[in-house]
Write a structure and sequence with these properties.
single chain; alpha+beta; 3-stranded antiparallel β-sheet
Length: 183
């Protein structure tokens, strides 16, 4: 539901993203989340002791029937190719992650940092897109493009999120992108 096709889907995705912000703020100890301006990013996660450390989050809310198929059938997890372009352009030299959550339980999630997702991912195509229980085609007779990564490469579960964020920030410090770690 990252690019909803109708106002109802857009509203539901926004509500679930706000719910996710609340869940993150009760779960994370060193970080705080805020609802972002949707056209720029879905969520910002900032280090509590250093507000200069910001991690941008792109959120995809997934219907529960599709979520079961992602967990049990599919070999890859994917996001729209437009998200890849956004990561390459807008989040270049910034900390950013892609996240998908189950619409029925936003604690049920998987995520990956944009840099890894782009470097280890691959293009996949589908003849149409499903959203809100409907099937859509963006362009007549043109398959839709996605950027996918092996689902074992993504990190699964909210219980691992804070350590993942710590590793992301610490990696940026080691690579000279940031000067301070989040304590």
């Amino acid at each position: 539901m990252s690019k909803p096709f109708d106002k109802g889907l857009a509203k539901k995705a926004e509500e679930k993203t706000k719910e996710l912000v609340n869940v993150l703020n009760t779960t994370l100890k060193k970080y705080e989340a805020s609802f972002g301006p949707q056209k720029d990013h879905d969520i910002e996660i900032r280090c509590k002791n250093n507000k200069g450390i910001t991690i941008y989050v792109e959120v995809e809310v997934v219907r529960s029937d599709r979520w079961k198929r992602i967990k049990n059938e599919f070999k890859t997890v994917r996001w729209p190719i437009a998200k890849k372009k956004k990561c390459e352009e807008k989040y270049k030299n910034k900390l950013a992650i892609m996240m998908s959550v189950n619409e029925n339980d936003v604690k049920d999630m998987f995520y990956i940092d944009c840099e890894t997702w782009i470097s280890k991912g691959k293009e996949e195509k589908a003849p149409q897109v499903r959203a809100g229980g409907k099937i859509y085609r963006y362009r007549k007779e043109t398959p839709e493009e996605f950027w996918a990564i092996d689902k074992q490469t993504a990190i699964w579960g909210i219980d691992r999120l804070e350590s993942f964020l710590d590793e992301l920030v610490n990696g940026a410090v080691k690579n000279g992108k940031l000067k301070d770690i989040c304590k």
